[in-house]
Specification:
By secondary structure, this protein is mostly helical. The chain folds into 2 domains: 255 residues, no CATH class; 119 residues, no CATH class. The protein has 25 helices and 5 strands. A 5-stranded mixed beta sheet has the order 2-1-3-5-4. Helix 6 runs parallel beside helix 9, helix 9 packs parallel to helix 11 and helix 14 packs across helix 16.
Amino acid sequence: MWTIYQKLPFIPSLNSLLLNIINFHMTNIPTKNRLLLLILFLISIFYLDSYFQSHCIDDAGITFQYSKNLSNGIGLRYHQNFQAVEGYSNPFWTFLLASFHKVGFLNLVVVSKKLSILFLFLSGLVFYFQSKKNLYFSFLFFIFLLNPMNTYWSFSGLENASFQFFLFYAFILVSQNNQKQLYLALSLLILSRPESIIYALLISFYSKEKKKNLTCSAIIFFSYLIFRLIYFNDILPNTIWAKLGTIHSMNIGQNLQTGWSYWYHYFDQYLCTGWLGLFVLFYPLYHKKYLLFSLILSHFLFILLSGGDWMRDYRFMMPISPLYFYILIQFLSKLNIPYKYLSYNLLLILLIYIQWLPKYKYLNKPYMELSVRIQRGKKIEKYAKQYNIKNPSLLDPDIGGTAYGTNLIIFDLVGLTNKEIGKSYKTPADFRKFIIQSSPDFIYSTSYWTKISKMKKIKEIYQNYVPLEGNHYFDDLDSCLLIKKKHRYPIK
């Protein structure tokens, strides 16, 4: 019965709407009794988790693999005999998952989701304590819970929920001048993502203890930078090098165009009109909220220069999205609407809910699922056993599930975990050299990476490999699954 209930369309979002209506009316009772609001908030989070429980992005498997190996004493290597390469972009999340793996929580898919629930709840705590000071912040409960982007990416296995919490909490701590907690929040924020140092420096600069916080941020940043130089022999994460020229364009003009489109369509889909993005950018400046303006502007420039993100539903917008809603709440509070008329705003919440309703159904469709990659890897392992291949290796552009969920040795066609291809110019010659030198037992490629690498023109592919299934090297979409010819047709 519970399984059928979970599959009913839009039930989780409807549940959140009903709970938020209850929450909203609770704002008219004394503040000390609003603890029930927080309890309902937590119930909603667990309920939404049950809806997205089956989803986990393949990219999260890369972090899981590093965390597992770090816990097992292999170090920050993708495989035991591989070079140490920073193939992840989330140090704090990687180390946190490794610590849980070390004490016996071995299923990192489950661990990552439960930790994300915790960080989502902590973000809810921030909203809760703000609502005690300003009733309009209670609207954040509506927006925060109803936003399908928030819930989906929080349960994707990635660091989004923790990054979001550290950023928003650090911002709130500045206004409270809570120096001790701010040190910790800034430190964890810096270790969340490569670009987070920008936000940490801005928060430090506009805090009352500017010098202390800038010093703290500098110590954390340069400490990890020195660690990166010593351990990885690199100044930047390898993920940045790997994505340049393939996933992210090096054409500034193109990035500006796609970045603006990314920014505009986020607001168009989630807040009625794309031009609202300019409102949330300049409203803080007009009211001399310089920290808020600086954070929004820096994120806007990051989106423009990077060209946005290729993954679905605006992953890059999630960590800073509470600040957008914070601005809208500030705007509402300045309208001085009497509290007794606030219930009319339920109509606005309902309209937002109706607009977001199809998103839940869309986001519940399979997308880059870790489980699918694990299944493909296990299928290849069965073939390896069938052909008596010892220590089988696979060339693969989708390396999360096939590495984390199997014992295959994975050669990364994208270059995230390999400096040779990651730092190359990624020309067809570079890919050809990498494939020949890797000499994997199996080759899998998607249509995109077949075209990028010009794999169909590599003569050694046809000389040394044969199709594992069927008679064609590449299907109609240019995907392939190949095995070394000597394994398939051994010389007797």
